[in-house]
Write a structure and sequence with these properties.
The chain is of the alpha+beta class. Helices cover 21% and strands 47% of the residues.
Length: 132
């Protein structure tokens, strides 16, 4: 899991896919945090992505950089604890003008039953699968 965290942290921007009814939705994200041996993402409850993950917690993440690309399949599980929210916000102080732990809008999810596949670019490169 640490390798997945390091990869996403390094690339900075990844793309999160959800569904809304039968319509796929993809948008750029930039928050990733390790807390209590779980990988977390963050959003606001007022955003459509929040409602989409609550309605259908199956998500995918994709990113590319550093000579490889990654795809993560996971279930997003909300963690409403203030200490988990604060840990995320401490990792991203630039968000603290819009979000506060326990404000009723800050929302974090950890990735459960995740399968990350890292695909190195180049001939004869073998993908690496990481489950967490």
């Amino acid at each position: 899991m640490k390798e997945v965290y390091d990869y996403l942290k390094k690339v900075g921007v990844y793309y999160l896919a959800t569904t809304e009814g039968d319509q796929p939705r993809v948008r750029p994200f930039g928050t990733i945090d390790l807390f209590e041996d779980k990988l977390y993402i963050q959003t606001g409850k007022i955003k459509p992505v929040s409602k989409q993950m609550v309605a259908n917690p199956k998500i995918e993440i994709a990113a590319m950089g550093g000579g490889a690309w990654i795809r993560i399949e996971a279930t997003a599980v909300e963690d409403a604890r203030v200490e988990a929210q604060q840990h995320m916000l401490d990792a991203y102080p630039q968000l603290q003008d819009r979000y506060k732990a326990g404000d009723g809008n800050t929302q974090i999810f950890y990735l459960k039953d995740a399968t990350a596949t890292i695909f190195p670019l180049g001939p004869n490169a073998e993908p690496k699968v990481i489950k967490f």
